Amino acid sequence: MLRLKTLHSRTFDRLRALFTNRAMPLFKILIDRTTSFFHSRFANGEPLRFKTLRSTIIVSFLGLFTLVQILTFYSVYTISTREVRTGIYNDLAGGLGVIDLKLKSRAENLSTAAEVLSRDYSFKTVFASRHRPTLLSAMKNQATRIQADVMLLVSLKGMVIEDTAHPGARPTAFPLPNFFTDAGKTDVASTTAYLDDKLYHLTAVPLRAPLPVAWIVFGFKIDDTLARELKMLTALDVTFTADRPGQAPAIAASSLSGELRDQISAALRSSGREPDGTMTFVLNDEQYLGMSHDLSTKDGAQIKVLMQRSMAAALKPYYRIRRILVLLFIGGVAVTLILGVVVSSFVTKPVRVLVEGARIIEQGDYTRTLPVLRQDEIGSLTSAFNHMQTAIAEREERIGHQAFYDALTDLPNRSFLDQKLQEAISKAREENRPLALILLNINRFISVIATLGHETGNAVLLKISVLLRDSMPPSAIVARMGGDVFALMVPGEDDNGALRIVNDIATRLEAPIWVEGAPIQIEARFGIVTYPVHGDDANTLQRRAEVALHLARSTAHGFAVYSPDQDRHSIHHLTLLSELRHAIDNDELVLHYQPKIHFASRRIIGVEALIRWRHPQHGFIPPDDFIPLSEGTGLIKPVTFWALKTAIRHCAQLFEQGIHLNVAINLSARVLPDHQLPDAIASFIDEFQLSPLQISLEITESAIMIDRQRTLEVITRLDSLGVQMVIDDFGTGYSSLAYLKNLPIDEIKIDKSFVQKMDVNENDAMIVRSIIELGHNLGYKVTAEGVETDRIYEMLRERGCDVSQGYLHGKAMPLEELMVWLEQSPWGRKRPAG
């Protein structure tokens, strides 16, 4: 691509002005066309672009040649014009000198003749006789003899005694009174002036007898004849101009004729003055150079003589050189064009080969290599192109592998499975046989990462990928879908075959996976779908396998086969999720409170706030149906903050009625690491002016272990507020006792899974007793939840448990029912009188 940015169209305008249709018609047409082209291309500031390298080379050759020729022609023009102007200037200056000498010569001749006449005795005698006819005859004879156009005899008082131009006229005053003053000083004077509307060059001498008695004045006309005579002497046009008071400037005489003479006055009025003293003006569309000289005296009109010469006429000798340059330019353009075509063909041929090779690569063919036929830069470029082609092929192969295979396990990824699953469905449809798709999810894999780190987690994934490959038949595809989810596509297997494969994998996973010398027990969940029973396209099978896997997470045996009821249940959950935000904003959520009974006093000391959803269509929805959904979508934070504010407000209302109860509120593992949580709780406590000791925050062991550093910071800030910190579901998590003992914990709650069967299961009873003793030894208060019978209540009291919570005392109930329960239940706390 060629960009002509610096070449301005004004350059072509200047060049076009150098030529006339008469002198350079061909070159002028070329300049006109070029100017129009560049005006159109640069009108909007757009660069000139060429589509091919060959056209770029050709135009570059032509452009370079044209630029050189333009510079050459411009140089020739500038030099020739400067030389012509210098020559004209010298001619004008010389011409003015010639005119001055000519006028002075004629004036001297007249002066000599006048002096001779003034000493002529016979002329003096005639003058003394005052006989006018004889005097006029003598004056005419004398004027004719010396070739004067006019002769006057003027008295010393300035009155014209006799005038050869007006014989017999009455005496009149001579129009130039100061003229004789100068003549009286030097005995001779000359001037140029008008007499009777005719321009004359006058010479005056005194007539002495012996003292001056009159003035003898001779004059010759300044007219076109004199101008043409001067032109013959100087080879320059001569013009005499007169500017008389009270009259318009006029041309007194000129060597110009016709139309040029008519234009000279207007041309002179609009002329320009050059630094060298010349003036420029235009006559008949041609430029003229002129130089003037002032001939006027103190009296009369302002008379000037002007020498002028046409620039075009002076430049004619140089036109031949310019024509030769134009012919050279035309011939050079042809030669340059041919040379550009030849060179561009030679240069662009290997480039075209490279372009063709690039198109082959573009089509995905990396097998062809270009022959290296030259050893110059083009050859090096061809070699580099071949190496680039090989590198691209290797890189595309690597990128293709990365696009369809997992970087960690080198198993096919989701994209690869999508493609192969649709192909397998088409083949299964043709062969009329089933196809199984199994999704596998590692149970609680996040706990493995949180406890042992990501490197151990990656090692576990690699071990499982090897195990799955070894468990599958050759026709099956094992893919990693992302995270801890794998997919197994097994052609030819129905539900029963898929279950056999699942059982085989589950059996293999019963053996621990060894990573860096340590055994890790892995459990998995399986979602199973088959073609064509559960779907006839890849998208449907994958979606329904996700539904089955979701259900498998809540089954005891760890696997589930898809059924339509499960899908409806999943859609129901999604519907609830979309309506949960509306429920938060429209007070559809409510809090129920379950009493907590102190063993020593057998009276209520606090309640646990449990959230419920009062759906306008579905009625009350338990928290297990919507809390997990909110944790997965980010809605758990507004739900938790709503529950905190509502529970603290209710606690303050009870306090105002004289009922001092501690309210326990559950915190999600998703909200606990949030640094905004302590500030929000502090603001709620300040808003309702409640003591922090009346608030307990229940957290689980697994929540503490997800992000230890951030969680420890938040728990420390919560403890500094003065609220009570409680470990909920103690005994079911993965936390380290050595870690927990350093946390600011006030209470632990024994999970109900250990409490509900402790009266019939000795192991559960032993675990409960151990937890109570451990908690007391660590300085914690111990609460047992899930107490439903008097037998279990007594067993807990005997083992020293501090607080009991369960259906034995009361179910979770709204605040209004709790107020009634406090009045009627034997566990309740009576309101103080008044």
Question: What do these coordinates show?
Answer:
With 834 residues, the chain is α+β, with helices and mostly antiparallel strands. The protein is built from 26 helices and 28 strands. Strands 20-21-23-24-25-26-27-28 form an 8-stranded mixed barrel, surrounded by 4 helices. Strands 3-2-1-6-5-4 form a 6-stranded antiparallel sheet. Mean pLDDT is 80; it is low at 1-12 and 18-24.
Please mark out the parts with pLDDT under 50 across 5 or more consecutive residues, or reply none: 1-12, 18-24
Name the helicity range.
40-55%
**Helical segment tally?**
26
Tell the overall outline: elongated
Give the strand line-up of the largest sheet: 20-21-23-24-25-26-27-28
Assembly context of the chains: single chain
Number of strands: 28
Distance N to C terminus: 98 Å
Quick tags:
21% strand; disordered N terminus; alpha+beta; 8-stranded mixed β-barrel; 6-stranded antiparallel beta sheet; 834 residues; 26 helices
In brief:
With 834 residues, the protein is α+β, with helices and mostly antiparallel strands. It contains 26 helices and 28 strands. Residues 1-12 and 18-24 have low confidence and may be disordered.
